[in-house]
Write a structure and sequence with these properties.
heterodimer; A: 69 residues; mainly alpha; 2 helices; elongated; B: 230 residues; alpha/beta; Glutaredoxin; 2 domains; five-stranded mixed sheet; 5 helices; 7 strands
């Protein structure tokens, strides 16, 4: 039985981009008044949460298997 | 012709000219002055936009809201004088009276209510400001809200919020911009809960962000990084 997993490097690349974009979004979210651009702030917080959830799910799915010894 | 007759004729011509000029000025409607519409008067035409101030909320006619309503009228006056000659601000009175004690009795609430009913506005959310670039023809009120109109509900707004809204409207009207939906307090009110929620998240994140300190000590040299000042 062959077990196919993503290479750790790919996950690192994914997480790097994810953290960078989420970081930029959260920086803008906390740095500006919500009342000025509420829709943009809404998208930002949803994007941050979703990005982290998706990355977590991918990582969980591809690296989170139980290995028996 | 003797001199007295010449002088008399001169004065007569001058007098007639004076009367003629005063009639011409009085008869001509100065657009920026047209902002208060009395009973039996129709809303003036020849404007690019009309801003109707409609008072059809019974709550605002009560004693506890009397000052707010007077403040709204003052805000209307300021609004009407700053939106320029191409735009009209309209307030409905029953008759011409300047006395303060007749302010409420003189409000033409019935006329406002006709608009509110025709435009399907919920009275309890009023007073309203209707900004429209289509002439609000009272003979065709059954057609509903005119095209190119924006409705602003002032009922739940604080005086400062009303001032801000009117100031924003003045900006957009003077610049000739289309009244944007983002200006409408209705959309703001709908989003109010979400805005408060996001502000709470923002506050929490800011508090959390301020809680950490990054400190490096190397051979007597210290470096500290604080997330927030203070």
């Amino acid at each position: 039985m062959s077990i196919r997993r993503w290479h750790v490097g790919k996950l690192i690349i994914l997480w790097s981009w994810g953290v960078l974009s989420a970081g930029l979004a959260i920086t803008h979210f906390v740095g500006t008044a919500v009342s000025e651009t509420p829709i943009l702030h809404g998208f930002e917080i949803i994007f941050v949460v979703l990005a982290l959830l998706v990355l977590t799910a991918i990582t969980w799915h591809w690296l989170g298997s139980k290995d028996s010894q | 012709m003797n001199i007295p007759k010449i002088i008399a004729a001169f004065f007569l011509i001058g007098y007639l000219a004076l009367i003629g000029s005063s009639v011409a000025v009085g008869g001509r409607r100065l657009p920026q002055d047209v902002k208060e519409v009395y009973k039996k008067e129709s809303i003036p035409t020849n404007f690019k936009t009309w801003s109707l101030f409609l008072v059809c909320n019974p709550k605002w006619l009560g004693a506890d809201k009397s000052q707010d309503l007077k403040d709204l009228y003052k805000a209307f006056e300021a609004f009407g004088t700053t939106i320029g000659p191409d735009n009209a601000a309209v307030w409905f009175w029953k008759q011409r009276q300047d006395q303060q004690d007749t302010f409420f009795a003189n409000l033409d609430v019935e006329r406002s209510s006709k608009f509110c009913s025709a435009f399907k506005l919920t009275p309890s959310k009023g007073p309203f400001v209707i900004v429209t670039s289509t002439y609000p023809d009272e003979s065709h009120l059954s057609n509903g809200l005119p095209a190119n109109s924006a409705v602003f509900e002032l009922g739940e707004m604080q005086p400062s919020q009303i001032s801000d809204l009117l100031a924003q409207l003045v900006d957009e009207l003077v610049k000739g911009e289309k009244i944007s939906a983002k200006t409408t307090p209705a959309s703001k009110q709908e989003a109010g809960t979400w805005i408060r929620l996001m502000e709470a998240v923002q506050h929490t994140l800011n508090s959390f962000g301020c809680a950490w300190t990054f400190k490096v000590e190397a051979e007597g040299v210290q470096a500290q990084l604080h997330a927030c000042k203070g």
